[in-house]
Amino acid sequence: MFIISNFMHSIATIVDIVFNLYIWILIARAILSWVNPDPYNPIVKFLYNITEPLMSRVRRILPVQFGGIDLTPMVIIIAIIFLRSFVVPTLHQLAYQIS
Question: Cβ distance 85 to 9 under 8 Å?
């Protein structure tokens, strides 16, 4: 059973890293929106391609623009922080209970 427990710990760690990485990608996207970057730059294309699907869904559900400021990244970051504080400890706790 320790193998499944270690596997669950590894999954929890990977999920935590992915959540953290996506938060930083959202922050980079928000900062880039302030400076009007070249849309053909590969880094800018990557950031837009990886964040736009989730941001467009959130914009459809919650129109969070106030005075020309798009607060969608902030809403997504808050949701990720909530998920991170719920999912990762739950996975770790499940791993401890298995072992």
Answer: no
Per-residue pLDDT, averaged over 65-87, amounts to 91
DSSP label at 1? -
Chain center to CA of 51:
9
33-70 pLDDT per residue, tens: 889 888 899 999 999 999 999 999 999 998 877 777 88
| Residues 6 or more apart in contact with residue 75 via CB below 8 angstroms | 58, 62, 64
In whole angstroms, what is the distance from residue 91 CA to residue 6 CA?
11
**pTM of the predicted model, to two decimals?**
0.88
Per DSSP, the residues of 28-82 read HHHHHHHH---TTSHHHHHHHHHHHHHHHHHHHH---EETTEE-HHHHHHHHHHH
